[in-house]
Amino acid sequence: MSNKKVCLVIGAGDATGGAVAKRFAREGYVACVTRRTLDKLQPLLDDIRKAGDVAHGFASDARKEDEVISLIDHIESSIGPIEVFVFNIGANSPNSILTETARRYTKMWEMACLAGFLNGREVAKRMVARANDTDQETKGIAHRGTIIFTGATASLRGSANFAGFSGGKMALRGLAQSMARELGPMGIHVAHTIIDGAIDTEFIRTLFPDKYALKEQGGILNPDHIADAYWMLHQQPRDAWTHELDLRPYMEKF
């Protein structure tokens, strides 16, 4: 196993997650990225490798405990120590409360929050163990770790037709707060971001053309700029850590 540090992105989609993986890979990290199916990761893996950086892709269901444990064990034992963990699963599926089903609601909570707990717990175990291992100092391995949970507008307020999404995202925010208070004194930086606005994606371009038309005016979020903010969070000195960071276009109402 190499001592080259790993950035693990759970939910490395075509926008934020992929941009974060590229940003950290450019800084010399091994990018380990996951989605439900491996084939959807191939364009991202190709882009990172064409740039001369290192990336590994994994098909993984982030809601299943055995798969999560197996994934983290494999990365830690075969690739390198996870220094940065980014949880970026969306789970946004609007529906009226009058027709919402228990199955859909539960699935959104599992994706938005349970998966964050399972992956965050397993990564934290490894980070804390390294921070407590005084022998690591002589090996040149930094005593640090960063955990970032991607939130949304729904992390703060529940809009009409978003009961399931807001329930999961608000729970994820509570998880991040609890982990930050417990793990911060152990040297682990836990941050929660609130992405408040439309992101430059094919989804927005196709389904919300009026919103997408604001791109040239800086009216929607650029994934690369979100990734820059994540890199900034990881670089913060521990005497000035940010726990919650909100990002929105200048014209977005809040």
Structure, briefly:
The chain is an alpha/beta fold and 254 residues long.
Can you describe this structure?
The protein is of the alpha/beta class. It has one domain (6-247): Rossmann fold (3-Layer(aba) Sandwich). The chain is built from eight helices and seven strands. The chain has helices spanning 16-26, 42-50, 65-78, 102-131, 163-183, 202-207, 209-212, 223-235; strands spanning 6-10, 30-35, 55-59, 82-87, 145-152, 188-195, 244-247. The chain has a seven-stranded parallel β-sheet, with helices on both faces. Strand 5 (145-152), helix 5 and strand 6 form a beta-alpha-beta unit. Helix 4 (102-131) packs parallel to helix 5 (163-183). The longest helix is centred in the middle third of the chain and has 30 residues, at 102-131. The termini are far apart. 43% of the residues are buried. The model is unreliable at 135-142 (pLDDT under 50).
